[in-house]
Amino acid sequence: MHELSIAENLLELVDKYRAEKGFTRCSSIRLRIGLLAAVDEEALRFAVEALTEGGPDAGVSLEVERTFPLARCSCGNSFEVQDLIYLCERCGSTSARLSGGDELDILHLEVD
Amino acid sequence: MSTIEIKDKLLSKNDQNALANRNLFDRHGVWCVNLISAPGSGKTSLIESTADHLSGRLNLGVLVGDLETENDANRIAAHGVPVRQIITGGACHLNARTVGDFLVHFDLERLDALIIENVGNLVCPASYYLGEHDRVSLISTPEGDDKPLKYPAMFRNASVLLINKIDLVPYVNCSVDTMVRNAMTVNPKLKIFKMSCTTNEGIPEWCGWLEEQLKK
């Protein structure tokens, strides 16, 4: 359910850039969302569609780039985390540190 | 048509508001805890027990978030601590700006610690930093020992895990050892306390940890 509030934050950012850059319509937004951010893409699309309806950005498309959690082991090995098990295949250690996978970033806007 | 490169955090506004809260806490020497759990795990009971145990030892304040009613605030106020209720009117989590708006109702100079009882929800509050020093996750044994694996975001960014209702273990299908192992899989750095707000077991240890943080 927090997708609605994330969509509100997203559109506030779009408005901030509209005031700064002086464009009229934003037609596309590219986002990077990590799996660990626990954001449902469909719910986010629905919220953005509902919030932009009747406004200058109505019909704006969302391009979402998903990222997966990566772990970095003290032996130097980096690997994608499967099923939340941080087992390093190279040295067998389970003390790998998580790097990434929780991104919630706005990357760029297509504007007219 | 043109492209504007941004590379900004989607919740950067919330992060800025959270940082302002954090600065305010630090300026007044208040240690802030963001308490997160599912509905019914025992957040309010934990705060009641904590307030009783710490009475006369430190000055606690409580900010409570709920979708509706002031029931929790009324329960906590009966234990003699300053409390404010945020009624979110349907929102499933607290955000930093709302918390900041309510901080004006506290005499922060008189407080040593502030516990923010988040809205009961194991998904949404994870994304919203409120400016807290520590995030504390609470689970209760009837919820099942695989909870940390099902809702990893809630445990990954926490510094403490409280396992509540351990007095119910004989009656529910839950292994506390498995729960601890699952939690450590998600976050090996978690400090874990097993407790019961009914028998008071584990409450002194948890309160001791809280008092330790104030000395930092």
Automatic annotation (TrEMBL), chain A:
Q: Is the keyword Metal-binding in the record? A: yes
Q: What is this protein called?
A: Hydrogenase maturation factor HypA
Q: Does the keyword Cell wall biogenesis/degradation apply?
A: no
Task: Identify the coding gene.
Answer: hypA
Q: Where does Zn(2+) bind?
A: C73, C75, C88, C91
Positions of transmembrane segments: none
- Record keywords: Metal-binding, Nickel, Zinc
Biological process per Gene Ontology, one example term = protein maturation
Signal sequence span per UniProt? none
GO MF annotation list: nickel cation binding; zinc ion binding
Q: Which InterPro entries match?
A: HypA/HybF
Q: Where does Ni(2+) bind?
A: H2
Q: What biological function has been recorded for the protein in this entry?
A: Involved in the maturation of [NiFe] hydrogenases. Required for nickel insertion into the metal center of the hydrogenase.
Record's family?
Belongs to the HypA/HybF family.
